[in-house]
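Workshop exercise sheet. Pairs work together: one partner reads the sequence aloud, the other fills in the structure field after running the prediction. Swap roles for the next sheet.
Pair: D.N. / O.F.
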Amino acid sequence: MNSTKNLKKAFSLIEVLIATALLLILSLIAVPILDISDQREREERLRLALVEMRSALNNHRQKHNTFPSSMLVLLATPTAGGFYLRRFPINPVTSPPQTRWDIASRTTGSASDHWETILSAGDTLTDGTPIVDVRCPENIGTGINGIPYQNW
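Structure field:
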């Protein structure tokens, strides 16, 4: 009688441990990749929000020969083609996401911009000057590219 007929086929303990270790290594590699893709998606939404708001500011300037005094003007003033800004964008890199942005004014003859943080579209600069630029607030973080969000 052949003794090999009575042997049962199964995985050895070593094979199971090696397969488990390989799955663990693959999962440890996959988690950071998912985090980076999530951050890239938030950064893309930030870039689009900044482009949208800056375009609205520039379009208002071209039509009225002056920058608006608040972001609310861009939301409330329809033009022949529609509103300058359909909604006040949420800052996707703040935690939790909120409508928190820095807005800038430039007074005649000054070499630099004056920045203030706003939380809603109705907020204006304390000195009442027009808004000329918008950016992400300070100390929010740094992008994947190594550039702080406030410099985008």
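Discussion prompt: The first helix runs from residue 13 to 64. What would you look at next?
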